[in-house]
Amino acid sequence: AAKADGKNRLAAYEPRLAIERHEHMRLSAELRRAVAEDEFVVNYQPVVDLSTGRVTAVEALLRWSPGGRPVPPLEFIPIAEQYGLIVPIGAWVLRQACKDVRTWYERFGISVTVNVSGRQLREPDFASVVLGALREAGLPGEALILEITETVLVSSTADADHVTALLSTVRAEGVRIAVDDFGTGYSSLAYLRHLPVDILKIDRAFTPEGGMAEEMAFTRAIVELGNSLRLSSIAEAVETPEQAERLRQLDCHLAQGYHFSRPLPVGDLDAVLTSRNGVLDGASLLS
Ligand code: C2E
Ligand code: MG
Ligand code: MG
Ligand code: MG
């Protein structure tokens, strides 16, 4: 059904979109093959406690390189969503991420945070997919965080009651919910009052670049909102020691970004965590 919908929507294309459409069809066919042939890889990027350097979580980021050429997630994930392929792919990411984090959770208390698309949330069996992935890996719910973008959380296309019930079900098992790309998606904050969430991931748009008063004011306001609602805040895309220091001064407790580490293949990150005993203070850049 998803496929037929997609075709109808694309039927009335303009000539200048023909190439784009062709590329789109080609990617969706390749994605279908990639699902069947298990061609995806998950990389992990540390989330670091700004006062101790301790890695508290790792974000699972999907990687796909058909024929050795990497395709950015922002190109293939929207297509996977449109054709419903994100449902099997997303379930695979959840199982893989839970499996991969198991020893890090046991050795260092590191949780894994997994991006979830709106399409997955609307699947009636999503809660059992999540809890099944945990059970299969022998992990408690506390080891898993689900990242949902602000836009998806508040969009009218997702049935609000269904989403609230779903989040409550997994939270009852200890799973935490993070609002991804916080601050860019929606003009009203009212949803934060009734949606069960635990963490704000502050969009990179609010990671202070140069320490100017005005941009610092936005960052401070968001961090204070999170702190006063007793939510943890994770700053995204922290690239320099100065940014990390400014965030620390604003009382933001957690951050991720190239300053600490790029997303790494599981074996590479395992070597880093082992050699540094789970602490990354950003003193030496990892690339
Ligand atoms: P996101 O969830 O907001 O992920 C953060 C993105 O920022 C990642 O891009 C990461 O590589 C990048 N990043 C991390 N640190 C820095 C930094 O210091 N500077 C800069 N400039 N960028 C940084 P990536 O891996 O290309 O993923 C892009 C988006 O694709 C993600 O944004 C997420 O929305 C989506 N995505 C990735 N994996 C999955 C997945 O398994 N499922 C779903 N549904 N979406 C995914
Ligand atoms: Mg994310
Ligand atoms: Mg994000
Ligand atoms: Mg983002």
TrEMBL record:
Q: Which UniProt keywords apply?
A: Membrane, Transmembrane, Transmembrane helix
User: Locate the EAL domain: which residues?
Assistant: 24-277
Keyword Membrane assigned to the entry: answer is yes
Q: What is this protein called?
A: EAL domain-containing protein
Q: Which organism encodes this protein?
A: Dactylosporangium fulvum
The root-end lineage is: Bacteria, Bacillati, Actinomycetota, Actinomycetes, Micromonosporales
Part of the whole protein covered = 487 to 773 of 773
